[in-house]
Amino acid sequence: MPAVRKTLLVVGHGSRVSKYNLDFETVVERLRSFLSDYEVRFGYVELVEPSLKEALENAALFSKEVILLPLFLFGAGHVKN
After folding, report:
1. pLDDT at 2
2. DSSP letter string over 2-71?
3. Residue 37 scores a pLDDT above 70
4. Cα 46–17–27 angle (5° rounding)?
5. Phi-psi category of 53—alpha, beta or left, where left has phi over 0 and alpha has psi -120 to 50?
6. CA 31/CA 34 separation, integer angstroms
7. Phi-psi map region of 26: left, alpha, beta (phi>0 left; psi -120 to 50 alpha)
8. Which backbone phi and psi does 27 adopt, to 5 degrees?
9. Is 60 exceeded by the pLDDT of residue 42?
10. Of 5, 25, 7, whose CA–CA distance to 15 is shortest?
11. CA distances from 29 to 17, 80, 81 (A)
């Protein structure tokens, strides 16, 4: 894979309900279609893979700049606190 200048890493909470994860990943896919200059990826805070740590490590392998975008679609504890 050629080196990518920037990666947008969208961070979701993660849910035990797979439909909610699919909704989140659908939003990420839409972002990907609009942001062709970026490598758009995602990671989750908990409950689902890829973990945020894993997603950051992977992005760092091919990007010099990683931009994090928190995208929480529901009010979980990480958002409330």
Report:
1. 56
2. --EEEEEEEEE---SSHHHHHHHHHHHHHHHHH-TTSEEEEEESSSSSSBHHHHHHHHHHHEEEEEEEE-
3. yes
4. 75
5. alpha
6. 5
7. alpha
8. -65, -45
9. yes
10. 25
11. 19, 26, 28
Q: Are 53 and 65 in contact (CB under 8 A)?
A: no
- For residue 78, pLDDT over 60 is answered with no
* Residue tagged 């975008």 (tokens): 69
Here the tokens at position 24 are: 């989140």
Tokens 């760092």 belong to 60
The residue to which tokens 């758009």 are assigned: 40
Please report where in the chains the tokens 């200048």 appear, as a residue: 5
